[in-house]
Amino acid sequence: MLLSVLIPAYNEIKSIDAILAKIQAVALDKEIIIVDDGSTDGTRERLATYASVPNIRVIHHEKNQGKGAAIRTAIQHMRGDIAIVQDADLEYEPQDYPALVAPIADGSHKVIYGSRFIKAENRHSYFTFYLGGQLVTWITNLLYNQRLTDEPTCYKVFEANFLRSIPLECMRFEFCPEVTAKVAKRGIRIQELPINYYPRSIEEGKKISWLDGIEAIWVLLKYRFVD
């Protein structure tokens, strides 16, 4: 089976080479789809050096549109049987792919989330981020009859045709609550597996803020009661 690695990238010049090397080192048949979301720090120019790499494709947004918009673009270009979302930084460990992909490859699941909280030794960047993530997860479980420990995780893995079938509208970080809500409303109980996590600080390039947590709660409420 072919794994499509979907990478939204915005101003990640410090980590783009390292994360691509980590992904390439994973022993799976894969394509890497990078959507450069209007980077201005040299990321776009650096990605041009990968033009000759057979399993890497780079798509450009001329203007920054947001993580959700970049993921939606990547979905349009993927050709794999399974898809995983991968940030362009080094917070998540691609060597976790095989375990996350296995339940989808064997046909037992359509969706798997990688949880940072099942693995007790993982650190977390800021206490406020930790609390915000736990609140979003609790609201998700309450509204959608789930038993998640980590709704905002980056590592969301899908049977590719199932992901294609979900009508997404997200532009920014609300990709996570929107896709979770729409998966749950199809009657799927999302399964989690433990993953490694190496948080970075705001100074190191972390972009999400508490306002995105408020937006996530709004999105969860909207798709539960309105959509």
Description:
There is one protein chain. The protein has a 7-stranded mixed β-sheet with strand order 3-2-1-4-6-5-7, with helices on both faces. It is built from 8 helices and 7 strands; from the N terminus they run βαβαβαβαβαβααβα. By secondary structure, it is of the alpha/beta class. The termini are far apart. The protein has one domain (3-225): Spore Coat Polysaccharide Biosynthesis Protein SpsA, Chain A (Alpha-Beta Complex), CATH 3.90.550. The longest helix is centred in the middle third of the chain and has 18 residues, at 127-144. Helix 2 (43-47) links the parallel strand 2 (30-37) and strand 3. It has helices at residues 16-24, 43-47, 67-77, 97-105, 127-144, 160-164, 175-184, 210-225; strands spanning 3-9, 30-37, 56-61, 82-85, 111-115, 156-159, 191-194. The model has no long low-confidence stretch (mean pLDDT 94). Helix 5 (127-144) packs parallel to helix 8 (210-225) and helix 7 (175-184) runs parallel beside helix 8. Residues 4-132 form the Glycosyltransferase 2-like domain. This is Glycosyl transferase. GO terms for molecular function: transferase activity.
Write the layout of secondary structure elements.
Elements lengths: L2 E7 L6 H9 L5 E8 L5 H5 L8 E6 L5 H11 L4 E4 L11 H9 L5 E5 L11 H18 L11 E4 H5 L10 H10 L6 E4 L15 H16 L2
Parallel strand pairs: 1-2, 1-4, 2-3, 5-7
Antiparallel strand pairs: 4-6, 5-6
Total number of helices: 8
Name the helix and strand elements from N-terminus to C-terminus, one letter apiece.
EHEHEHEHEHEHHEH
N-to-C span: 34 Å
Radius of gyration: 16 Å
Count all strands and give the number: 7
Structural class: alpha/beta
Return the CATH topology. Spore Coat Polysaccharide Biosynthesis Protein SpsA, Chain A
Helix percentage range: 25-40%
